[in-house]
Amino acid sequence: MKLSNRVLTRVGTRGAQRALGWATLASLAVTVVMGLLVVPPDATQGDVQRLMYVHVPAAWLAFMSFGTVFVASIAYLRTGRIQWDRIAVASAEIGVQFCALTLVLGSLWGQPVWGTWWTWDPRLTTTAVLLLIYVGYLALRRVADSPTRRARWSAVIGIVGFLDVPIVHMSVVWWRSLHQEATVLRPGAPTIAGSMLATLLLAVLAFSLAYAYLMVVRLRVGRAEDRAAGTVLSTPTPRAQTPARVSAVTVTRSSRHA
Amino acid sequence: MHDWGFVIAGYAVTAATLLTYRWRLAVRARRAHRLVSALTGRPPLGEHRR
Predict the structure, then answer these.
(1) Mind telling me how many Å the CA of A255 is from chain B's nearest CA?
(2) Total Cβ atoms within 10 A of residue A252
């Protein structure tokens, strides 16, 4: 068995899923305590800067999800194995949730700091485009009629759509932006206080665990839904199941009418 | 105090997103298992294992 299959099988067991769930919950709880109570407020923005500990990890999670879609889509087009398509759609679904959350949290942060809920800033606009691309990805899957065509079309969108991720990241460098530049993923040392950086990294870890947990659950649901769809298609209709009885009923009815 | 309103709202929205998505996944799994069980006559996966 391939290593990837072995890892997926091991992580997909109910015990592993439960352990991952508890680890996620515990790390998120510690993040909330650290972010709200322990870390000092920002010198210029005050307490509202505490939104960073959920806004940045949510954006990271969205990028990671769409990165997984990208890799799984390439793997699907190369191998044609449906497992890769299942991984891609599961990750896209989670990515859409967290991309939308990033925009909402950014809006909540923007109102007190910038004085507006929304502005057509390059970072915000490219992120909104990113969300629309993957909402389109999920919408397309409902339109395509055959599973193979659905997987192939969405794999192409999964690869092309990912091109927006580096554009979102670099938007604050390439264009004049209201949004602050990168403070951690930048050349040189991070421009952030030690305790804030530690809390931010903890939050990123907690959100990554949440992503892993949701992926495991979503893959399990995907398999169950595929099995249900397969059962529906393979179950014969009542007419096909009892042709003799159906025709007998029809004959009796027609003879009564006669 | 004004700032804390935005902070609490942000953390609450994050928790609500995570919990709602997890709940929706549970509903979808239950629906799929019930459908298979109705069509095949086998008990749903969760009940079978108990």
Answers:
(1) 33
(2) 10
